[in-house]
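Technical note accompanying the year-one report. For the benefit of new consortium partners, we illustrate the data format agreed upon in the data management plan: each record pairs a sequence with a structure-token string. No post-processing was applied to the example shown here.
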Amino acid sequence: MLAFILRRLALLPLVALGVTLLLFGLLQFLTPEMRASLYIKDPRQLSAMEAVIQKYKLRDPFPVQYGVWLKQLLGGDLGYSETAKMPVGEAVRAFFPATFELALFSFFPILTIGIWLGTQSAVKKDKFIDQVSRFMAITGYSLPSFVLGLVLLMIFYGHLKLLPPGRFSLETDLLIHSENFRQYTGLLLADSILNRKLWVFWDGFKHLILPSITLCYINVALLVRITRSSMLEEINKDYVRTARAKGLSESVVINKHARKNALIPVITLSSLLFVGILGGVVITETVFNYPGIGRWGVNAAQQLDIPGVIGFALLYSCLFVLGNLVADTLYAYVDPRIRLK
């Protein structure tokens, strides 16, 4: 198992290098003047555009430019984001914790409900729970997330005045930016506990409920379909019939044998779902006015904030690579045969 993980880790630098090469190649479609604007923080620097071009060697051959850019990237210099009014690295650190908190709050219910409901749907095929889960899967898969989000906002915020959009209230915003609140992690719920401010925890929790429900309903639908399909395939195989013929209980046959083998496609989907949420669920964050990394990425694209777009793309690429590494590791844990490949 350790050798398998080390082989996968050895490939990560090559994959990451390929990602940076691709992104920098896309930048070559811009003129040197446009690329120089990535490094300008003040409009008064526009008069020194040629000096910026010379400093970053933006008219040199591609390998030289790539080497300079990669050195800056490794040093944490990704340029200045006009959308966020701060360097790109600081913008990522500012917006990513909100999305990470939303991802954690949403992913575990998605995983638990999706696998359990998909398993029950396959085991009790054509019975009541199967009909209910298939109805949920079809509606969740077909319903656009912005429609569900707006309906939830209309009911729970517009009519009931219970669950507001955003990440926190104005009172919480004033507190967390004051000297009376120390931000240890950037995660509002965790920091509220560490600061012993339970009312801040409750405020942040209320703001997470509606976007989490939206993400859960949409993503559980896909996970239920994949789990059900995979389980139906496994429970009709010979080894399951053999296990039943040996007198093993149905719970052991399903949970220990069939479901374990059915989890491989589920692991693939789950890792991609988590990476997708971490990369910023753009529509959900926009509908609920949630200040996450996805909403910042959309604003950067709309305002032609090239450093912001490149920073967002680099972050999402890194998350995708790490997500695949985690999926490969889980494959090897669930099915030891994969370790030999």
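Partners are asked to follow this layout when depositing records. Residues 31-77 form one domain.
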